[in-house]
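Re: [help] complex structure
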Amino acid sequence: MKTDITWGIGGEAGFGIMSSGTMLAKLFSRAGYGVIASNEYPSLIRGGHNFVSVRLTTDIVHAPKKSIQLLIALNKDTVNFHKDELDDHAYLVYDENDYAWKAEDFTHPITLIAVPFTELVKEKNGDAVMRNTIALGVTMALLGKDLTLLTAVITDQFKGKKEQITKDNIAIATSGYEYVKKHYAHLADMVLAEGTVKEPCLVMNASEAVAFGALAGGMKFAAIYPMTPINALIPLFADHAEELGIVYKQPEDEIAGITMAIGASLGGARSMVATSGGGFALMVEAISMAGIMEVPVVVDLGMRPGPATGMPTWTEQGELQMVLRAGHGEFPRIILAPGDVEESFTLTKTAFDLADEFQTPVFVLTDKYINETLWQLKKSVLTAPTTGILSKPSEINDFKRYDVAVANGISARSFAGMKGQEYIANSYEHDEYGYTTEESAMRISQVDKRARKMDTIRARAPKPNVFGDVDADITFVTFGSLKGVILDAMETLKKDGVKAKLIHFTWVYPLVESDIKPLLEGEKRLVVVEQNSTGQLASLIREETGVTILEKWNKYDGRQWQSEEIVQKYNAK
Amino acid sequence: MINTGDIFSTAIKPTWCPGCGNYGIWLALKSALTKLAIPRENIVIVYGVGCHGNMRDWMHVYGVEGLHGRALPVAQGIKLANPNLTVIAVTGDGDCLGEGGNHFIHAAKRNPNITVLVHNNEVYGLTTGQAAPTAQVGMVTKSTPTGVIDPPFTPSSLGIFTGATFAARGFAGDIPHLTDLISQAITHKGFSVVDMLQPCVTFDKIHTYQWYRERVQKVNISEEKLGDRVHSLELASTFGEKIPIGVLHKRDAITSEDREFTLKNGPLTTVPVVDVSALEVLSQFQ
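Output below.
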């Protein structure tokens, strides 16, 4: 019996490839398995090739795998594009109507399973789009699982629609299931052992986890202009605004988005924007404004390959150095980068508290991979709400919004409606009341006040998370979404007798030299692994700590680093 | 902030050029706020960047001096956070229609209950006199040495066309009339645009107080006619030998804030934070 299977489905865009991946991930998560689903697709709505892979394991899983054990091909291209990823003795499910595959078409042994998808759909008077539902039925039979697991998810999927739709889909799934039972009952290599995950989990992508983290962090206002890869936030906020107790606004552009969010924050509501690199480029001037006005705002920046429009539906970690420098002038900022959905939730929640406490922009750096991969989030992670706005206006009459006497740089805020606490939130340099000034001593005092906030922030910075062996042969250093991939690779390396360690930065900026230096120094072999071409984290570490890490592993073809690639790279050296 | 006898003034002395139309506008705004008796802690004025924006330092209310062109989205954000506030955007022709043109038309389309005061002097005063989007064809400025060649916008007609539910045009040289227009604009529930004709005594030698006085004509339009957008557009785009001033357009429409379900329960500042572990929407992720 198998304990770890990667299932893949491919076909033309518009044929429900993504949704079948989601359904499979949900049903196995419910049944106590570890699941992770990742997708690849071009920047098109119809046509083009779509592909989803779901890794199913009997225990919790950190990352997808590249090699596939069970591939469902809804067209010929799927096989052409993915045949090199097929494992020895992998199952290939295909329709002979598309192409009659033969064993000699493959370089290694494959089990060919012909299923007449089109014919089965026709028999049930279904639409060609429903071939993906046949595929799910086929999958359940090949994995040796009960069909009721699938029918329960189908029922939930079509809840609120006509009952007949649910019935039709179940009938179609059943015909796929029965076809395999009838014609391929002898195939039992892919039967999956029972799942051992006891804790109830939700299945979502990191954008959705960011959304729930924001809500738990007291977010009340979001202005988001659509952009891949953060679009999943939008329906969640827009469709459920009333239940969530928030206002979601689609602005006319990203400049309006960030300035609306700053306005809402000035009005007393915790606020956020979400965008990708191009949209963030438009927001940069306003980030600087939030810096001088000392306004809290949270930016979820979902990175994708640039420059400019680049490769919009693929992944990269190319915006770290941009976020680090974004905004003219000098002002404090905090950069966080979650490594999975759990961290997406907890760090986003923290981001709102930090923004409010330090009255400055806080960035949550995500990327296409983490934002569009489906992960499991333990239900217990969803914790109680934050206490809300931390800043309280002073009780004194002579209210100084930008009081320079504060030792930690953090002065009291007030909100419109509070009597006697009026001030000017001024993008010009200002005095303690917010009045414009160009006077030398006050300029110095205000610059120093803002700089003291950065010192206060730095004193709060947590150390990076360290995983793996103490006396490691290789120590990986990375940030954000590469966490799971490297942890997964470390499991493989461990089986091969290699001792490995991971230093993972979720708090990316500012860094504390005295914390980081001892972690890096004395390691046998340090490698910075990044999803970009220049090694942006390596540069930041050098700048902040003086430690130069010479070995850099970079990937920048838009495809996420895979666990196997890390292992291969190690073995090649 | 330090109180003075005039409750809306601060102790800081204005730095506008002597004779600048901004003085008239400033007085009219303070008079309107006094007349409407709005407590100053409930007023937020968002300023653009330009000569007009310097008003922030001598107005005693909650002030926001933002970025050039971006006053309107900031104002909408404040209003959505707390609809109980009186939110006014004090902007210039370059700020509001040049840099901020996209924000202006989309704000008009949404109809938030905010008032936009457009200082219309046809030039960029703070950068020493280049042509604004409102500059008349032929006008010689620092950026148009042989005269403006592109035809201008009129702020009120652009507002009416894109959805503003209140539009008026006033003249900085007629303070009582402008006071009345500003107070009507603030009172109107919806996106209100006041196009304020304002001589720039330093960089525009053509459009003087005298030039405007010879051309402005007060109009008094019936309630019924005020809701007729075609008629209003005709009046608003009349600009030349005759310039109609007064309320040009007024109609009722649902506001941006009233479309938000969450705000029916009060301002966002009072809406409790949800317990994410108990949300119904979580069932979608199971």
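Chain A has four domains: 4-183, 202-381, 392-460, 465-572.
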